[in-house]
Amino acid sequence: MAQTNQINPESQEDLLYCVDPHWEPYEAIKNGIHVGISAQYLQVIAELSGLNFTLVPTESWQQSLEFVQQGKCHVVPMLNTSDYRKQFLAFSKPYFEAPNVLVARQGTPMLQGYGGIGSRTIGIVQGYRQVEYISRYYPSLRIKLVESEKEGLTKLASGDFDVLVGSLMSVNMHINDLNLNELVIVGYAEPFDSLAYGVNKSFAHLVDRLNYAIERIPEARKVQIYKQWNSVKIRQSKDYITWALGTALIMLVFLVLIVRQRYKRLFKSVVKQKNSEIASLQATLQEKNKTVAILSAHDAATGLYNRNHMIQRAEEEISRFHRFHTSASLIIVELSYQVSSEDIDTSAVEEAFKVVADNCLSSAREVDVVSRFNTEQFVILCPQTPLEPSKILAERLLSSLSNDDVVQKHFSVAVGMAELLAREDFNDWLERTTKALYQSKRLGYNNVAIAD
Predict the structure, then answer these.
(1) pLDDT surpassing 60 at residue 238
(2) How many CB atoms lie within 10 A of CB 97?
(3) Mean per-residue pLDDT for 280-295?
């Protein structure tokens, strides 16, 4: 069960903090105010930890790092760990992950990470962990430092260097805002960001309080922040104007070939080149669609975790169960339509699914993992929780759904649950829980069935 320890108000402490002023949407300073993802997490963590945070404005990320190293500010709320930074910072647990991407001008082939950059020059924001990472593992790469990702994209478009490494959400936002249509994502860069709080070592005693707060951030709040800022749209590299001009050129060459046979060899060469370009564009589109699907850990309609993420978290809990013999429970909620498929109002049903998702989040505890497992099934993982407390949660959720007019108008609700047993893997656990779900249906819905 979740702990109920409360922060003593008398233990409140005032802290100065610095941020990256130009890293939208992760964090930024606008009119002297801290905004972005880290700002919203900071508000929650301040409430949970009893710490008071005061912003120290800076002009650049490099200056923020210098300030926290010099003690002019005490905390940086969103950064990666590195060997260099560990010399003057203590780090909390990570609370947000984000991928890094490689950006280049139209016509650049897909790059397989830093190893595919070759002789090209790469731009990096000064002070970013990637500078230290590349210097250690790819020392032959040529680096050009910039003040911010926004400045780097502008310089990339003007040809100051060949490739820029940056954060996915930030890069896409700036490309769209600056209308840099000639820039496209050409690859992903390791390692992905695993962002945490960095605390000046003079205040290292506060790391435990930050970890306490991070572990207790409500799941509903994480989903809310994710949905608010998850506006990433991968820019495709297909340029229809260039393609149209190329097609017109091929037709022109074809007509000329009718008159002048001596251009036959040139014509074949042009056709081969264009076919290669089309194949490259198709491969790029498939690769980007694949990577976007892998990156997404949430259901687009409800904002809950999706099936893949739930399976991953369940496997982690099973591993913890086998090591420490802690309990864990699984709850499946399945919705059955009240009317035939021909009479279903799709838009109304989708809104009803969102209502179900909200009920799941409000009924679950902060430590529970709530997912939309498939279209009609919602799965809740209750870590380190035996059967009886989990049954109370399941009955509370069923009561909430049964008293919701929107849900009852469209669905009948069945609930099955099972406690993890020794030597079970996830498939065995899920199968037992599903059998309990079928028992709930046989009993006429609106009941909680427990697996044997």
Answers:
(1) no
(2) 11
(3) 68
